[in-house]
Amino acid sequence: MDSNQKNVLHGSFRARTRVIPDYSDDPPVAPGAVLGFFTYHSDTEESDLEILTYDPTTNIRYSNQPDEDTETGNTIPGASTDAVLPNNKVWTDWHDHRLDWFDGMSRWYIDDELALEKTKNVPTKPSGLILNLWSDGGEWSGNMTVGAEVIAGFEWVEMVFNISGTNPSKRDQAACNVGCNVDGVQEVGVPEVAFDSMSSDSTSDDSTNDDSTNDDSTNADSTSNDSTSSNSLSSGSSAMVAGGVVDQVAAVVVVQVLAFWALFFFGSN
C-alpha cells in the first residue's frame, strides 16, 4: 500500500498489524520476508519500521536512512537499531505500531509505549507512507524456501500529518478555531473536538495537550493540537487519499480494513 499523499512533512503514522504465524514449532514464520511500514521520499530520505522474518519475533528494525556509508560500506552509528520489543512482545501478535516524525527526531512506539527515538539522519523532505511485504532472496531479506509463504494482517492504518504545498490546501483564515484529539478517542480514525473557540461551551485549550502526538506542545512543526502552531494541520478522511479540508487542526487519513488480509507468496532458489 502506498499513500497518494506525497507531500507529508512531519506527522504521526500508525497501523495495527502482525505477521501471521504458521504455528509450526520452529520457526513460527517462514524466514526470508520483510514487512515494512515507513515514510519515503528517496533511499536517503526515509524513516523505517521493518520486521524481518528471520529475526527473533521479539525484534524490530527501526532506522533513518541512510544507515550505511556508501563509500566505506560501514554502518552509520545511530541511524539504525535492531530493537528488542518491551514487555516480551512479539510481532506475531496484534500490536499498534506508531512512527512519529518531527523536525530533527523520529520516535517509534508499540501499543503507545515508546520503543526508540533517533536524531540521526531524520528525513527532511516531503514524503509518502508505504506499507509492504516483500522478499527478493537477497542479503537483507534473507532467502525464502521455494513454496514457503508469509502472511501479514492489517486492521487499520492512520495518518496525522503536516503537509508541504497544496492538496489538501489550507484555509485562508488567519487562525484556526477548532482543535481535535486523535488519541484516546472512541473510534480509531475519527477525531474528537477538544475545543472550539467559536463555541460558548468549548473546553479549554489546556485539554489539547493531553492527547497530543508530541510531548512538546510548543513545537511549531509538531502534530500537536496546539492551534497557535505556525504549521497547524487540516482535517479530512479517506482511504489512503487526503479528503476534504474541514478545519486546520489535524489531517487524518484512515484505512479501516478490519477484514483485510494481505497474502504474499515468495520463493527463491
TrEMBL record:
Annotated ranges, domain GH16: 5-143
Under the heading PANTHER family, the entry gives: GH16 DOMAIN-CONTAINING PROTEIN, GH16 DOMAIN-CONTAINING PROTEIN-RELATED
By what name is this protein known? Answer: GH16 domain-containing protein
Q: Which InterPro entries match?
A: Beta-glucanase-like, ConA-like_dom_sf
- Recall the taxonomic lineage recorded for the source organism: Eukaryota, Fungi, Dikarya, Ascomycota, Pezizomycotina
Which Pfam families does the annotation name?
Answer: Glyco_hydro_16
> Where, by residue number, does the polypeptide cross the bilayer?
239-266
GO molecular function terms listed in the Swiss-Prot or TrEMBL record: hydrolase activity, hydrolyzing O-glycosyl compounds
Write out the GO biological process terms: carbohydrate metabolic process
| Residues of the signal peptide | none
Q: What's the source species for this entry?
A: Knufia fluminis
Output compositional bias ranges, type Low complexity: 215-234
Q: Which UniProt keywords apply?
A: Membrane, Transmembrane, Transmembrane helix
Q: Where is this region: Disordered?
A: 59-81, 196-234
Compositional bias, Acidic residues, is annotated for 203-214
